[in-house]
From TrEMBL:
It comes from Hyphomonas beringensis. Signal peptide: none annotated. Residues 358-434 form the [Acyl-carrier-protein] S-malonyltransferase-like inserted helical domain. This is [Acyl-carrier-protein] S-malonyltransferase-like inserted helical domain-containing protein. InterPro entries: Aldolase_TIM, FabD-like_helical_ins, PfaD-like_TIM-barrel.
Length: 502
């Protein structure tokens, strides 16, 4: 017999018994009873217990304060894990944000952390941020954009390790590694390399005892598979990536002898509808992480004007553009295309750089275009860029004095940086230059909520989005559970319409 979507949903938290007219061989009758299913049961309960959460759901960090302290606070209050988008912010700004979070959530709430992004263009920045995290008692760090382990990530883990009376190693500091490649994931899954540990000990940054403990446990227990997402991304498909990281975990554990079940692999990127959440948990994800969709929430650090642009996006309204922090290396980020010319302009800037051009060697027409994009003559833009780079990276500044192509790159990086800043500030005269990190998930979310209370951006809160996604995933899991046992469930019942949760 069929079961309606309304019945599935209304009896989600009850035992459901179904009388089937026939068994698989077409003979006789059978009775199948299904236990209750709760959103809290989706994923790995060890994850929720380790991080003090109700749901195995992470409100992911969006850099430069887009994931605001307010967003983290609301995530914690509704039973999720939240990460402050501290990457790229100055230490004093980060410190103020951490104070706001700690004050609102209190000392007993541990389901939150902050973001550390690999910053090769800013020597010493990562160390300063980790120092601040340690000083302020931040116990959860989300490491993103790393291609290899850094000493400061290892240091964060090592300084939180201790041994109990029974000899077990426990950790106070937790690293979440956001990765999209198996070779990177393996570095975080394995114990810290001996050369990094020896250097940290020699520099007096960790003790000999801490180095010994760090050599026996993984650097990170929580690995986030970052599929096709907004911002930094390798545009990986979720299912192959998740499978790849599971196999990587097994390889590492075979080499190290560490229990593979201590490593929890979550999934982010493309998590925007109940279908995405349910699929992730069905694959075995310990937790899910949402990113792009939270940018349109009222707690987001994006301006209202930018959030309205996001709310109009479709799944195909995205494009790749050069990343501000790794412009010269050709690293790209995924951004919103609809309503802005940023991606097109950014790619043209990178083409000029790759050709070896400098402002002085460009044609008059190209210089006019560049001045128009910058909103000021190139020489004026260079003077402002120069003043910043001399403080942040003196070596780069010195090289640029005699290298016109390098000057072009640094000014281009400033434009890319400002594109994101204009989107946060809501600069009315620079809408066409907004850099808004966005993946296809945002468009999928917009399609799902169309015509419901979640369509207007003023109703999009972290709480309502998270609860609807988890409840919807439980609904779909119930339908899948019944179908897998041979119950006839119509295809149209594999859907969930957003509802307002109190």
């Amino acid at each position: 017999m069929g079961y309606s979507g309304e019945q599935l949903l209304s009896r989600l938290r009850e035992e459901v018994c179904v009388d089937e007219n026939a068994s698989p061989d077409g003979k006789g009758e059978r009775r199948i009873c299904f236990p209750p299913i709760y959103p809290e049961w989706l994923g790995d309960r060890a994850f929720a217990e380790a991080h003090g959460a109700r749901f195995n759901y992470v409100v992911g960090e969006m850099a430069r304060g887009i994931a605001t302290p307010r967003m983290v606070i609301e995530a914690g209050r509704c039973g999720c894990v939240g990460f402050y988008g501290s990457a790229g912010l100055q230490p004093d700004t980060i410190d103020a944000g951490l104070s706001e979070i700690k004050s609102a959530l209190g000392p007993d709430q541990v389901s939150w952390g902050a973001n550390l992004i690999h910053s090769p263009q800013q020597p010493g920045y990562e160390a300063k941020v980790v120092d601040l995290f340690l000083e302020r008692g931040v116990r959860r760090l989300s490491a993103s954009a790393y291609m290899r382990l850094s000493p400061d990530v290892v240091r964060f883990t090592a300084l939180g390790l201790s041994r109990t009376k029974d000899g077990s190693i426990v950790r106070a500091n937790h690293v979440f590694a956001k990765v999209s490649r198996a070779e990177v994931a393996e570095q975080f899954m394995a114990p810290a390399p001996e050369n990094i540990l020896r250097t940290l000990v020699a520099e007096g940054r960790i003790s000999e005892a801490q180095a010994d403990l760090a050599a026996q446990v993984p650097v990170a227990l929580d690995i986030t598979a970052e599929a096709d997402s907004g911002g930094h991304t390798d545009n990986r498909a979720a299912a192959p990536l998740f499978s790849s990281l599971c196999l990587a975990r097994d390889r590492v554990m075979e080499r190290s002898g560490i229990d593979a079940n201590t490593i929890r692999i979550g999934l982010g990127g493309g998590i925007a509808t109940p279908h995405g959440v349910a699929a992730a948990f069905q694959m075995g994800a310990a937790y899910v992480l949402t990113g792009s969709i939270n940018q349109a929430a009222i707690e987001s650090g994006l301006s209202e004007r930018a959030r309205h642009l996001l709310a109009k996006a479709g799944p195909a309204d995205v494009a790749m553009a050069p990343a501000a922090d790794m412009f010269e290396q050709g690293v790209e980020v995924q951004v919103l295309k609809r309503g802005t010319l940023f991606a097109m302009r950014a790619r043209k800037l990178h083409a000029f750089y790759r050709s070896g051009a400098s402002y002085e060697t460009m044609s008059a027409e190209d210089r006019k275009w560049l001045d128009g994009v910058l909103g000021e003559p190139f020489p004026a833009a260079w003077q402002q860029t120069r003043a910043y780079i001399q403080k942040a990276n003196p070596k780069e500044a010195a090289r640029a004095e005699t290298d016109g192509n390098k000057r072009l790159a640094l000014v281009a990086r400033r434009y890319l940086f400002m594109g994101a800043q204009w989107a946060r500030d809501g600069a009315e005269d620079r809408v066409s230059d907004y850099q808004i990190w966005c993946g296809p998930a945002q468009g999928a979310f917009n399609e799902w909520v169309a015509g419901t209370f979640l369509e207007p951006i003023e109703n999009r809160t972290v709480r309502q989005m998270a609860l609807n996604l988890m409840e919807g995933a439980a609904h779909l899991s119930r339908a899948g559970q019944m179908r897998a046992c041979g119950v006839s469930v119509p295809p149209t019942e594999f859907s969930f319409k957003p509802r307002h949760f109190l």
